[in-house]
Design goal:
Elements: E1 2-9, H1 13-21, H2 24-36, E2 41-47, H3 53-67, E3 73-77, H4 80-89, E4 98-103, H5 106-118, E5 122-126, H6 137-153, E6 161-164, H7 174-190, E7 195-197, H8 212-225, E8 230-233, H9 238-244, H10 249-259, H11 271-283
Parallel strand pairs: 1-2, 1-8, 2-3, 3-4, 4-5, 5-6, 6-7
The structure holds (6S)-5,6,7,8-tetrahydrofolate.
(6S)-5,6,7,8-tetrahydrofolate is lined by residues 6-7, 9, 11-13, 45, 76, 100-101, 124, 126, 164, 166-167, 198-199, 201-202, 205, 232.
Length: 296
């Protein structure tokens, strides 16, 4: 599982301030930390960046690449001019940069696909349509086919496209987590050769901070089993990265068993592994979400 570090992010107090004040130090420290933590890509997330995006993105790209030039970057903004300005100054990396993202909305993808072609960038195909979030896996599939067709017509092969079926918070939209898993299983048929990714931490957006890692870790393993290729994830969650890199087979095994309804009795398990079993049940909707699901 590839990991795309999420923490170079305008929503973070420290990094948001550094973006605004064009202070390179916290940004470069964060990029170096992400490399040390084993991130495969670094996401530069400016948010909407309506006003100064086209000036800010190239500055951040160059600031990061001054200290980390061997890890590809994902350029994350809804401001199209900001993305293009970042690609313009991008220094070549072993793998091409990733545009984050192109939505399934005609007026946007018609502008953005040519940019991906021009700069030979990979792109994240975000399953966000004219009516917003798709309601189920079939709506996700319909959006996916439309956007990938348009990209293929422009000469972009599926191998350069990272499909993002969109992760939603489990505490308010429990069935959507299952729908995303179903969509991942369909993906090899509807988009052969395409890669996939998702904003993993969205699943725990809302629950208390101390419960976020176990939700993120459990859902990552469940998605990986359904074919997920990469996650945009928290580089400070070392256990998550260990699991992603195949170093905690015991956790993977127990999550698979729980998904199949074959986990040993909770009372026979360590607290650590029992918590993963309980979390699988919450994500699959076998248990109704509440902040106290681990205490039951
Ligand atoms: N798909 C794609 N791109 C995305 C998302 C997605 N980019 C943005 C987001 N979703 C993924 N990135 C983050 C970044 C931070 C957090 C969640 C997802 C997050 N941060 C903490 C918070 O807000 O509480 C901590 C912030 C801080 O550092 O202070 O949860 O779905 N393609």
């Amino acid at each position: 599982m590839l990991c795309i570090g999420e923490s170079l992010n305008v929503m973070s107090k420290k990094i948001g301030k550094a973006f605004k004040e064009r202070d390179p130090k916290p940004i470069q420290e964060e990029a170096l930390r992400q490399r040390e933590k084993g991130m495969d890509y670094i996401d530069i997330n400016l948010g909407p960046a309506k006003k100064d995006g086209p000036e800010l993105m190239p500055w951040v790209v160059q600031t990061v690449q001054e200290v980390v030039d061997d890890i590809p970057l994902a350029l994350d903004s809804s401001n199209i001019e900001a993305i293009e300005a970042g690609l313009k100054v991008y220094k070549e990396t072993p793998n091409p940069p990733l545009i984050n993202s192109i939505m399934c909305r005609k007026e946007r993808y018609e502008k953005m696909i040519p940019i991906a072609v021009k700069y030979n960038a990979d792109f994240i195909a975000l399953m966000w349509g004219p009516e917003g979030l798709p309601r189920d896996e079939n709506e996700r599939a319909a959006l996916c086919v439309e956007l990938l067709y348009a990209a293929n017509e422009a000469g972009i092969p599926n191998e350069k496209i990272w499909v993002d079926g969109i992760v939603t918070p489990v505490n308010i939209q429990q069935p959507q987590s299952v729908s995303l898993m179903e969509f991942q299983k369909m993906l090899p048929d509807i988009a052969p050769g395409a890669k996939s990714t998702c904003g993993l931490s969205n699943v725990s957006n809302g629950p208390p901070n101390h419960l976020r890692p176990i939700l993120n870790q459990t859902f990552m393993v469940m998605l990986q089993r359904c074919g997920m290729y990469s996650v945009i994830s928290d580089p400070l969650d070392e256990k998550l990265t260990q699991i992603a890199k195949g170093k905690r087979q015991d956790i993977v095994d127990i999550i698979y068993a729980a998904m199949d309804g074959k986990a040993p009795a909770i009372s026979s398990l360590s607290k650590e592994l029992a918590d993963y079993v309980k979390t699988v049940d919450v994500i699959l909707g076998r248990t109704l979400y509440s902040d106290s699901w681990l205490e039951i």
